[in-house]
Amino acid sequence: MAEAVAGCVRHGLPAIGLWRQNVAEQGLDETVRLVKDAGLRVSSLCRGGFLTAPDFEADNRRAIDEAAALEAACLVMVVGGLPGVVPGEPLGEISRDLPAARERVAEALALLAPYAAERGVRLALEPLHPVYCADRAVLSTLGQALDLAAPYAPETVGVVIDTFHVWWDPQVFEQIGRAGREGRIASYQVCDFLSPLPDVLLGRGMMGDGVIDFGPLTGAVAAAGYAGDVEVEIFNADVWAADPDEVVATMKNRFERLVVTRV
Amino acid sequence: MAEAVAGCVRHGLPAIGLWRQNVAEQGLDETVRLVKDAGLRVSSLCRGGFLTAPDFEADNRRAIDEAAALEAACLVMVVGGLPGVVPGEPLGEISRDLPAARERVAEALALLAPYAAERGVRLALEPLHPVYCADRAVLSTLGQALDLAAPYAPETVGVVIDTFHVWWDPQVFEQIGRAGREGRIASYQVCDFLSPLPDVLLGRGMMGDGVIDFGPLTGAVAAAGYAGDVEVEIFNADVWAADPDEVVATMKNRFERLVVTRV
What we know:
Two copies of one chain form a homodimer. Chain A is globular and about 45 Å long. Chain A is built from eleven helices and nine strands. In chain A, helix 1 runs parallel beside helix 3, helix 2 crosses helix 3 and helix 8 runs parallel beside helix 9. Chain A starts with a helix and ends with a helix. The first copy, chain A, is an alpha/beta fold. The model of chain A has no long low-confidence stretch (mean pLDDT 97). Chain A has helices at 2-10, 20-26, 28-38, 56-69, 98-119, 142-149, 163-166, 172-181, 214-223, 237-241, 244-259; strands at 15-19, 41-49, 75-78, 123-125, 157-162, 185-190, 192-193, 204-205, 230-232. In chain A, the strands form two sheets. In chain A, strands 1-2-3-4-5-6-9 form a seven-stranded parallel β-sheet. Chains A, B: It comes from Planotetraspora phitsanulokensis. Chains A, B: It holds the Pfam family AP_endonuc_2.
């Protein structure tokens, strides 16, 4: 955590997206102090969710508390897959009833949203690429995320637009426009989709190394009124193993060249 | 080919889906004779498509001719990915313009549909799971396939509903209903989606080994009026390596137990 925060400062990055396990390792209070002293915004806390598991509630309330303490712009919600499916594990007793799992997510959200509102935390529903439907998120499209968010105030429940997850969607531009009109864009995240996909979880790449055309997506998000931080989130073992200063330098270069749109 | 045809006869399967490379290996005339003598229907010929490649036309006309000779119920169209992306190969010069690639597919279809109509062949547009959007099919949802088919007579352009590709889609039941109303269901294919996905291309499984709930999907396809053959298509190295008689026995058992719905 200290290294990541110092890296942001050294490279002039104004905001950082945090993951809960790193916050826990550093300690919540110490993390709050670190990011405050560094003058960084917390663009998001990742992640709440896994709402299809029986014991979702206590942990999600803790995640909301942490997001409040960190003054995170939102708490990213990865809603969970089919009940009983554990990511990376062989299938045991599972439910294959996908519509019911989606209903469970809606019910769990109804339990958590009032608490998030009370704590001033914005829950950001993240549709994940359909390849994760079974094990990580039964929420598969931006349209579906917006339908799920509809009953709540936009400042309490928003959506994440992550290029890796939504780039393929024939309705993506229409739904980004809708997300803007409904005031729901809580986060815009970028990374590339590698091809061939070397790994289902870690097959994400630095912008420019894959197949995504970032300009039109960034343009649509900007035209939809989103003016918050853009997060670069890359699940990739090579990126993680590389020298952090080189990774940030490459990231800034690619970001300027491929992601930013000027209107 | 001879082994597959004999296996269908031995196990009382009334129809077979053929792949073009196997037809080519056996010879088209000899394949026609084999399936006719065996009394088998050809439920589909797989595949035409890759319409985003510059040289798509001649090969697709040949595929249409072959489907006509085989009296196949349809020619499955895997429409192709982003121009320049070759499945399994590192990225070279590619186009990242996904909307343009989709437009190219529509234009190619406009060139091929009249020829298919003339030869009495039904083109069956297959939406592929979004994980294949870059390298195999920019056609990612059933709704999108139906939009693409809309300008043509249903007997000339239909759609394939493959459980592996569509099970995750929040709109799948609505779009199956629409496909029925529009008379477009050309093929219903089943196989399971394994979790964790062991391989992006070959991670398909025998029904019951993965996460798909077949009953509601089969029920929706039947309620939509589809009364054609149901194809079991499993891309899986273990299945391919196993004893064919055991595979067919397992397939029949799983099919009866998990796929068939009785109304």
